[in-house]
Specification:
The longest helix has 17 residues. The chain has one domain: HIT-like (HIT family, subunit A, 2-Layer Sandwich). By secondary structure, the protein is of the alpha+beta class. The N and C termini lie far apart (37 Å). It has a five-stranded antiparallel beta sheet, covered by helices on one side. The protein has two helices and five strands; from the N terminus they run αβββαββ. β1 and β2 form a beta hairpin. The structure holds 2'-deoxyguanosine-5'-monophosphate (DGP). 2'-deoxyguanosine-5'-monophosphate binds next to loops. InterPro entries: Histidine_triad_CS, Histidine_triad_HIT, HIT-like, HIT-like_sf.
């Protein structure tokens, strides 16, 4: 069995370090990003420690769908009626720094495209 390494997000899930949690259910947690790149910058993560999208398994299908609908719910809670961007940095070239799957929700300003 491959053990998933613990990360800072595991510590947030276990309440070992503080976070500004904006939503939680049995499968997911959402909290504000410590280094916000937009007026609203929230991370949605599964409680299950999946490394990233590239390593997700077929058995994670329902969980991944749940995370996207959690993004929708959190965006509504955050009042992002004007729209928002959803980002999943995946692996080294994707700019991933925390190896626990997470979805960035960015909003509260007009976002440019393409990203750097
Ligand atoms: P990524 O580059 O996609 O792996 O983004 C990781 C994000 O996690 C980054 O935007 C900063 C955020 N982050 C890192 N450590 C912490 C932390 O301890 N608390 C919170 N709230 N966010 C963190």
């Amino acid at each position: 069995m491959t053990l998933t390494p613990d990360t800072i997000f595991g510590k947030i899930i276990r309440r070992e370090i503080p976070a500004n949690i904006v939503y939680e259910d049995e499968l997911a947690l959402a909290f504000t990003d410590v280094n916000p790149q937009a007026p609203t910058h929230i991370l949605v993560i599964p409680k299950k420690p999946i490394v990233n999208l590239a390593t997700a398994q077929a058995e994670d299908q329902l969980l991944l769908g749940h995370l996207l609908l959690t993004v929708q719910k959190v965006a509504q809670i955050a009042g992002l009626e004007q729209g928002y961007r959803v980002v999943m940095n995946t692996g080294q070239d994707g700019g991933q720094t925390v190896y626990h799957l997470h979805i960035h929700i960015l909003g509260g300003r007009s976002l440019s495209w393409p990203p750097g």
